[in-house]
Amino acid sequence: MAFLPREEHPSLIVGFDLADDAGVFRLSDDLCLIQTLDFFTPIVNDPYTFGQIAAANALSDVYAMGGRPITAMNIVGFPVKTMDKEILVEVLKGGFDKVHEAGAALVGGHTVEDLELKYGLSVTGLASPDRIMTNAGARPGQVLVLSKPLGTGILSTALKGRMLSPEDEVLMTQSMTALNRFGTEAAERFGVRAGTDVTGFGLLGHSWEMARASQVGLVIESGRVPVLGQALELAAMGLVPAGSYTNQNFCSKSLSVAEGVAPEMLSLLADAQTSGGLLLAVNPDRVEDLLAALQKEAPRAAIIGRVIDGPPGAIQVV
Ligand code: CO
Ligand code: CO
Fold first, then answer.
1. Which residues in the chain belong to E strands, given as ranges?
2. What pLDDT, on a 0 to 100 scale, did the predictor assign at position 268?
3. How far, in Å, from the CA of 243 to the mean position of ligand 1?
4. What pLDDT is attached to residue 196?
5. Ligand 2 mean position to 62 CA, how many Å?
6. How far is the CA of 21 from the centre of ligand 1 (A)?
7. How far is the CA of 247 from the centre of ligand 2 (A)?
8. What would the pLDDT profile of 229-274 be if each residue is shown by its tens digit?
9. How far is the CA of 80 from the centre of ligand 1 (A)?
10. pLDDT at position 1, please?
11. Residue 13 confidence (pLDDT)
């Protein structure tokens, strides 16, 4: 939204200028409003599961700011003339159940006729100002933690091409329907102030946004990055969504890759995630405790790198 003028409202704490996950607006000295929305076309075949994924994904941007969702509204595009209405009912049930799992209330929505099914939600959350996590909070010496494995873009590409094993389909679905609530709770407990969720720009793109906003460099230790199912093998076979190449090019000027990092690993790091995990920058003395707490709910959470003192925006993959 760089073509829009900068939003200068005095109560706006986080706007869209540093590519954060959601807007944060100060309501009072100890309360902030968090607002976000997201919607997309189906990425799995089962409509109920799609509804759950879309909701987990939309809720995630509130969690990524350190907030707790309170209300949500459906956004629906539906091909009335060509699709069975029962499919929409299942999608909406999936979304409703996930919103309730998050402890929020579904309060309305809007449907328009469309050429293809689209579903998502606008989500409103609350947080206290001293618990907001942003892209700009990372400091040299901190450790990077990722709460979910990477590979949903590669696996869903394989699913479309009928190349995905049933085991990997289960792993992918479990990962995308899992709420990021526990990541936020752990972050709050251990005083984390820098975080984002890994979604459409992939780990590389979202790391780059964090590095730029925080004016730091990031080192990603590729060997420690958790991998979803057979994502690396599938990427090596060329099952890489087009968006991954865009993501790689997008931050290529700020990216240095050590010799020996395989091309399929880079594809994984650039893989566009749907309902991906949280990327947190954690103080080194708190990281082991945070990880232990996080792994109770997000067993694949892992340390994947560290924050270094510049150059600002630089990403090293080793
Ligand atoms: Co986000
Ligand atoms: Co988003």
1. 12-14, 23-28, 31-40, 68-78, 105-113, 118-127, 143-146, 194-197, 217-220, 255-257, 278-282, 302-308, 315-317
2. 97
3. 16
4. 94
5. 9
6. 4
7. 15
8. 999 999 999 999 988 889 888 888 899 999 999 999 999 999 999 9
9. 30
10. 64
11. 86
Instruction: Report pLDDT for 243.
Output: 86
* Prediction pTM value: 0.94
Distance 279 CA to ligand 2 centre (A): 14
- Ordered domains of the chain (ranges, CATH): 12-130 (3.30.1330.10), 133-317 (3.90.650.10)
Q: What's the 22 CA to ligand 2 centre distance in angstroms? A: 7
Spell out the long-range contacts of 205-209 with Cβ–Cβ below 8 A and sequence spacing 24 or more.
205/247, 205/250, 205/251, 205/270, 206/279, 207/144, 207/279, 207/315, 208/250, 208/251, 208/254, 208/255, 208/313, 208/315, 209/18, 209/19, 209/135
Low-confidence ranges of the chain (pLDDT < 70): 1-2
Query: Separation of 288 CA from ligand 2 center, angstroms?
Result: 28
pLDDT value, residue 132: 93
**From the CA of 311, how far away is ligand 1's center (Å)?**
24
Residue count (the chain) = 318
Residue 125, SS3 per DSSP:
strand
